[in-house]
Write a structure and sequence with these properties.
There is one protein chain. By secondary structure, the protein is an alpha/beta fold. The protein has one domain: Rossmann fold (3-Layer(aba) Sandwich). Helix content is about 30%, strand content about 25%. It has 6 helices and 10 strands, in the order αβααβαββαβββαβββ. The strands form 2 sheets. Strands 1-9-8-5-4-2-3 form a 7-stranded mixed β-sheet, with helices on both faces. A 3-stranded antiparallel β-sheet has the order 7-6-10, with no helix packed on it. The chain starts with 6 loop residues before the first helix and ends with a strand. Keywords: Lyase.
Amino acid sequence: MSLDFIHDIQRAYRKLIDSQSRPGTLSDLAEEAGELALDKGCLPATLVLAEMLLDTEVSFNVFSERKVQVTQLFKQMSYARETEASEADFIFVLSDAQQGDLQQALEMAKIGNLSDPHFSATLIIEVESLSEGRKLRLSGPGIQSFTNAQVLASEGWLDIRAERNAEYPLGLDCLFVDTKHRLLALPRTTQVLVEEVS
């Protein structure tokens, strides 16, 4: 089976927009991801996002043990160009990335400038689960009062994200996908605190 580029990608795009406009909302990409063959070097939901976001006008970088394989796949399907992480429009941090790669990607990613804040990077981050891990308290645009989310990811990413997003409108947007084909968006405008365990 393969993705229907018109219908499947448009449906997935609507889910992405919903997740971005309502941070903390988990979107289910299982229907679209189920159309893809397994073992492409990344999660099926990641591949759906790559099909959607990459084209000839943008650049990307991959953090993965299978960087060469995944980079070649993304180039073939989109004709997007690979570049250094510090210059990339999209940075993919896959589940098999080295310890510390997520933190490095966040530190290296471009955050735009005051005249062109849109010249910033979006990170697509694979995690084991979006229903386990530390409980996060989200607030900001698109959230009435606050909402909760969970991300089972390596330690240290929250502090770096907060530092890089400290001077709005500069900052990074993060998209998390997990092994159950779920999507969580954390736009740069979303404030994230760790819930204290009582």
